[in-house]
Every structure is written in structure tokens, then in C-alpha cells.
């Protein structure tokens, strides 16, 4: 069984404002389905418009926090996971704390005095989602918070780490601190390509972090963007996965394994220069509610078995199970107990 505090996540805690919208709304705010972007000024009115025009759900989100919550749910052992990030001192922040506590995750939030808790508009059309994140307080995370003894104790205690690429825009210094600790202590560090814009505009710092990654997650669009940015001249996801797994490593203790999801197509796992494909359970279209959090849930399920030292095939199976559960519900939410064997 996973012991207490074994898995630590660090990222941008955001309150998801989720609604089924229409094509006109997407066009108005110039957003595309199956994409994730940071809000610009032109996007700021959309948050209020969503709550006025559509039926909105408020769900604790943020990519890494989603994955950690799902791993916690799969493990069913309170406090097996911990999470660090920055929220505001407001009602959304309180909501987030309540939600995390209920999920059994040990959260150590840095609470910013000035900025409001970050939000993410989740615009759903035909079951597909588009994410527009207004980081606000999430953007204010400081490495000094991580260095405080009570927070660094979480790093010391954990044996596995997961920090999605989105945190590269906020505190690369904090990521590298954790990554270097993992390498020095022979622990497992994992990350995610997260979004095309991360691969495009945060290339240099992404490369620095990648050197420490024992597991790299991503989806097919992100993998192809990564390939394009690095001039690899291939769109073949299997080939890209192998090349990412062979990226130079800062520590030689563990080999790197790349795990790329492709929606309804098989999961690509690359290690030791070869690829294994794992089919996913196909869901009838009428059962699909929304794909928000599917990738995060996959990672959470995967990590829940990894921390128990299960074989990769079991990790992938748990990942596809968790993703399958999440896409049948609104947002990254789940029933009380998992039914995974």
C-alpha cells in the first residue's frame, strides 16, 4: 500500500467554471476546442458571461491538482498525496480548501493577500472542451514558500513527484528545486507537456526540467507540437515518444518513460527505444459528458499504481479506467469509490 505523503504535486490551483456553451461563444472569444490557453484581456469578460448565460458548475481544478485528487481517490488512503500551490484569500480559495480536504489530499497552499484565486473557464461543446485559465493568485507562487521547513518536509517525505508543465509559467525555480532533490535522492520525478503553448513559448525551461523527468506524459497534439518546435520533422507519435524518452538525462538512476495518450486511440508508451501500444476502453458517444480533466485523470490513475510499484501495464490500465470514469461526468469529478481491480 502507498504510505502517507508518498506522492507530491505542485501546480496552479484553479477553480473551474464549467459550462456547456455554443459555437457562437467560442467564436466570440476566439477559442478552439481541445486547446488550453492563458486568458488575455479580450477573454476576461467571458467568466461573468458564462455564469449569466449558461448553467455553470464550480469545480476545484488545475491540471496537477486534478491528477493528485484522482490518484488520492484511487488510493483510498487519506493523506497518501500532498499538493502545493497558490490561492487567494477569498471565497473561491475557501471552496478550494474545503474541496481538497474532502478529497483527502494534504494541501499546503500559499495564500496571496492581494490576488484573487485563479479560475479556469471550461467551455464544452459536443463533449469536447476548451480551457482558458486566468491564473491570478496561482501566478504568485514563490519559491520561498516551498523552502519553509513545514513545506519542504512534504518534499522530503515524498518518493514520487508530479508537476505538470503549466507550472513552468509560474515558478520554474520551484520545479527545479524539487527535480534536483528527486535526482539526488534517487526518487521518481514526473512531468507533463501540458499544452502546445508550453512547448512553443516555454521551450528552454521545459528542456531544463525534462532532463530530470523519469516519466513524461502528454497527448498527441502536444507531442506533435514538441516535435515541430525541436525541428524533428515527424508527426509520428510513436517516433516522437521514443525521442522524448531518449532526451539526455540529468541523473542516470532511472530510465525515462514517455506516455502519450491519443483520445480514443491506443496509449503510446516508449521506453528502452521501443514502443508498446495499450488500447483504451471505447465509450459510446452518448455516455460522453465532457473531456475536461480526462488527461489529468489518466495521469492520476497511472500514478496511483506507480507509487505502489505496479508494472507499467497496470499503471496504464488504471489511467484509462480513471479517464473513462471522468469523461462520463461533468469536470474532473468522480464517484465515492473506484471500482478498479
From TrEMBL:
Cofactor: Mg(2+)
Cellular component per GO, a single term: nucleus
InterPro entries registered for this protein in UniProt: Adenokinase, Carboh/pur_kinase_PfkB_CS, PfkB_dom, Ribokinase-like
Matching SUPFAM superfamilies: Ribokinase-like
Annotated Carbohydrate kinase PfkB domain residues: 26-335
EC number of this enzyme: 2.7.1.20
Protein name from the UniProt record: Adenosine kinase
Species, as recorded: Linum tenue
